Amino acid sequence: MEHDMRMGLSLWAIVAIVCNSVVGVLILILFVILYKACKVPSHQGKMPVFITELEQTKAEQKYMLSAA
């Protein structure tokens, strides 16, 4: 009984505590990533649309064809 009090935590108990702490931190990081990913809008209609030069020239050509 005396040797149990003298030794304290065993090596394997300390290893288990460290491993569980690492897993807890990784789960916390995962939840932060999921939270930020859920804030990103998934619909294209809500996001600003940037038209490239190629799309602009196609739009101008369609307008010129329909106006003539």
Automatic annotation (TrEMBL):
It comes from the Eukaryota. The chain crosses the membrane at residues 12-35. Keywords: Membrane, Transmembrane, Transmembrane helix. The keyword Transmembrane applies. This is Uncharacterized protein. It comes from Salarias fasciatus (Jewelled blenny).
